[in-house]
């Protein structure tokens, strides 16, 4: 026979736990969406530069996706 040594959660504490979990999930998804948007904007900005401008910062056009990810990782 097993016994539950954890106190039973009341309705309000369970609701608060669920709300916190929901907010944490929403926050994580919002953060991921914001990061994706920031990387896309960075790639767009870099793509609009001329080859000469890209060379001045030390990258080629094919390096843009990796470079954008690197820049956003430092933030």
Could you characterize the architecture of this molecule?
The chain has helices spanning 11-47, 51-56, 64-73. The protein is mainly alpha-helical. The chain has a domain at 35-75. The protein is rod-shaped and about 65 Å long. The chain starts with 10 loop residues before the first helix and ends with a helix.
Topology record:
Blueprint: H1 11-47, H2 51-56, H3 64-73
Helix pairs in contact: 1-3
Condensed summary:
The chain is mainly alpha-helical and 75 residues long. It is built from three helices and no strands.
Q: How many helices does DSSP assign?
A: 3
Say what oligomer this is. single chain
Order of helices and strands: HHH
Distance between the termini: 54 Å
Mean pLDDT across the residues is 86
- Profile the largest sheet: none
Q: How large is the share of residues in beta strands?
A: under 5%
| Uncertain regions spanning at least 5 consecutive residues | none
Broad shape? rod-shaped
Number of extended strands: 0
Helix content: over 70%
**By helix and strand content, what is the structural category?**
mainly alpha
* Rg calc: 23 Å
Task: Give me some keywords for this one.
75 residues, single chain, 71% helix
